[in-house]
Specification:
The structure holds 2 protein chains of 2 kinds. Chain A is mainly alpha-helical. Chain A has 13 helices and 2 strands; from the N terminus they run αββαααααααααααα. In chain A, helix 7 (about 155-185) packs antiparallel against helix 11 (about 235-240) and helix 12 packs antiparallel against helix 13. Classes of the chains: A mainly alpha, B mainly alpha.
Chain lengths: ~300, ~280
């Protein structure tokens, strides 16, 4: 951190006072709980706060031997990747359309950005309402006009479809903002040069524009995966409660369920630690390889 | 892009309108539902027009709430608002102070503070819910506004943004204030903060929406109806058998939950976009 800015000298205790509120909050509500999660993962706990028995890595080995946990792991990965690919792909496509020199461009922009303000949980409720087997309008048409036996409470594939749609619907707006900004910073001179060289619009896009978007793509990849793994808890909690069976029980939902409903704090903590490692790997990966894979 | 056929000029509009319709359709469904009676909704399919019960439904939602909930939408709006404002304002103030210290002061431990704060970007609250719950509980902050707000102002997004902005300000400005004999705090309050208007506005939009839309954390720590936020209330109203749910009240509450953050994004769209794309790096 080179001194790129003026620095006050001999200010005594002032900088410490300034940084104190943030540090206090970070210590109490971040480091201490994070450390506790790691600590508690090595114990078996009586759910009513009584005895704690040290069990070493047993919580972890029990976890990795548990087929239900692995199923949850696979479900989470598939879900996160699916949501990421769909939300990013659709957003990129829409950003390309909105970036063309068309009338009403800023109207379209506004109309595609507002869903960012909708809570993930609300997105779940919206789609739950439309697909509810009893009262849902779309469910009604699926059953009566297309003869589909729609009941996502019983059918795993349908449940998975529903939570994917709800998560994607909301996330497109976020990706759209970044892709549009990225597209607008691509110098038109480069695209025009490619056109003069005879490249078709599709080639112009994939050979010139898309590589220039790679910083954006890489950033969004990380953010979308984090979204898919963690921030989609409200959708699963509200719409399917991990069901039917374990079909939509993503990792973060399982952490909550095992910790809060089943009161298995040791296992829940171990699962949290695994998730922590996952996030840290994702973030480190983005910081280190994000710069290398970027083409300028 | 150089020479366009008629089709290629209309096509973007078609795609964009398709997207707009897909985005708006669920909202319209919810709005329509909030204008009918529960009986009309439950006898699928629900009529797709706007019914005459808008006033009645919203009044009931605000005044009483659903029969199986015990909290009116009015109370929940208040809670959501306090939480969102608390998180936005709290985070901005704490982050401004911390970023100021880290950028403008050379002091032992500066690097440690910086990295400690940046690490918070790595772990979303979802991976530390149980122990954070315990800490909040031990501090007696369950079912309280402090408990709802404080753990949510941990992450370093604001510090990052403000730090970046502070670093982009010419050195001469702080130097000049020193030559004029201003104290560091006077410089901060009279010169620096006013200059930081735009990033502050951006952060406000993002954090207000983030705070308003919080779900997992309030779910964990609020058990008393008087502290329910809108989203928690909606969740509680939807638990139980379909036939017992007062769908029209739920949908009215959902509309109420959506309007403030959407309004903020629409009114402050420019600052919102700037804030998002600036924190990308």
């Amino acid at each position: 951190m080179a001194a790129k800015q003026y620095e006050f000298r001999k200010s005594g205790v002032l900088p410490y006072l300034l940084v104190l509120p943030q540090m206090v909050i970070v210590c109490i509500f971040f480091f201490w709980p994070a450390a506790q999660a790691v600590w508690q993962s090595f114990f078996l706990q009586d759910p009513f706060g009584g005895t704690m028995i040290f069990v070493g890595f047993e919580n972890y080995s029990a976890l990795f031997k548990d087929p239900v946990y692995w199923q949850s792991f696979v479900t989470s990965c598939v879900y996160a990747v699916l949501v990421t690919v769909c939300a990013m792909g659709i957003a990129l496509f829409l950003a390309v359309q909105a970036n063309k020199k068309i009338r009403f461009a800023s109207f379209y922009k506004t109309m595609l950005i507002w869903p960012y303000a909708v809570a993930t949980m609300v997105s779940g409720v919206l789609w739950l309402f439309m697909f509810n087997p009893n009262v849902g309008v779309i469910a009604y048409f699926l059953k009566h006009s297309f003869g589909i036996d729609w009941n996502y409470l019983l059918n795993s594939g349908q449940a998975f479809f529903l939570i994917t749609v709800a998560a994607t619907w909301k996330q497109v707006a976020y990706n759209f903002v970044f892709y549009l900004a990225g597209l607008q910073s691509v110098p038109t001179a480069l695209i025009e040069a490619a056109a003069i060289d005879g490249a078709s619009p599709i080639k112009r896009f994939w050979r010139v524009v898309y590589p220039l978007l790679s910083p954006t793509t890489f950033y969004l990849l990380t953010m979308n995966l984090v979204y898919g793994f963690f921030e989609t808890f409200p959708i699963v909690h509200q719409v399917t409660q991990g069901g039917p069976g374990q079909a939509t029980s993503i990792l973060v939902y399982k952490v909550w369920k095992d910790g809060v409903l089943n009161l298995d704090l040791g296992s829940s903590s171990a699962q949290s630690v695994v998730l922590m490692v996952l996030v840290i790997l994702l973030t480190v990966f983005q910081f280190r390889y994000g710069e290398k894979s970027v083409t300028y | 892009m150089m020479m366009q056929s008629k089709a290629s000029r209309i096509l973007p509009h078609i795609w964009l309108w398709l997207a707009i319709i897909i985005l708006l359709f669920p909202i319209y469904m919810v709005f329509a539902a909030s204008s009918h009676t529960n009986a009309e909704i439950q006898s699928a399919p629900m009529p797709l027009n706007i019914g005459p019960y808008l006033g009645i439904n919203y009044h009931r939602a605000l005044a009483e709430g659903a029969r199986n909930l015990g909290a009116s939408a009015w109370v929940m709006i208040r809670n959501s608002f306090i939480m969102a404002m608390g998180i936005a304002v709290g985070k901005i103030i704490v982050s401004l102070l911390a970023a100021y210290a880290i950028v403008f002061f050379k002091f032992p431990g500066r690097s440690f503070c910086f990295w400690a704060i940046i690490i918070t970007l790595m772990l979303p609250v979802e991976v530390r819910i149980m122990p954070t719950y315990k800490v909040v509980s031990d501090l007696g902050m369950l079912n309280s506004y402090a408990g709802l707000i404080l753990p949510m102002i941990v992450s370093a997004t604001a510090v990052f943004l403000f730090r970046q902005f502070f670093l982009s300000i010419p050195k001469e400005i702080a130097e000049a204030s020193q030559i004029d004999g201003a104290s560091p705090m006077a410089f901060f309050t009279q010169i620096l903060v006013p200059m930081t208007r735009t990033p502050i506005a951006s952060m406000f939009v993002i954090q207000f929406i983030y705070g308003w839309n919080q779900y997992l954390w309030p779910l964990l720590i609020t058990t008393k109806e008087q502290y329910y936020t809108l989203l928690i209330g909606i969740n509680k109203m939807l638990t139980g058998a379909d036939v017992l749910i007062e769908w029209q009240i739920v949908m009215a509450t959902v509309m109420l939950a959506m309007i403030p953050p959407v309004f903020v994004v629409l009114v402050m769209q420019k600052q919102f976009i700037a804030g998002m794309t600036d924190t990308e790096k």
